[in-house]
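FW: tagging you since you asked about this chain on Friday. Here's the raw sequence from the shared folder, copied in full. Didn't touch anything.
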Amino acid sequence: MSDKTLKHLIASAIALLLVFQIGTLIASIFGVAWGTISSIVVAAVTIASARLAKAAGKSSLWFLLPVLIFTFTPIILMIWRGITEDVTWLDRLVMLLPFIVGFAAPIILLLLAYYELRKRNLEG
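HL: got it, structure written out here
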């Protein structure tokens, strides 16, 4: 596979993770209808950002800014929920661990891979 194909696959995986996590978060707070609407909005913003990043050429700010906003919003909300609940630290860890393993860590690893592929394409 070419670096360009890998970059597109990584961007797609990031977008899918973001759509799922934001939709799940909003659905748990406000209900299924708002979760569905927010998933559609996140998907639309991510697609628009990817197109703007492609049009911008060397600058990946249009892709990375929404990804970072959609990544850190759920992370901050989940940590806030975990800290404000009146439970033991072990319960907090058990509550946050699936989120970290299933969303935060994969997003960070995919962003690092995307950045490295982008850097490699700009150098070459």
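FW: The radius of gyration is 16 Å.
HL: agreed, and Helices lie at 3-30, 32-56, 61-84, 89-123.
FW: great, closing this out.
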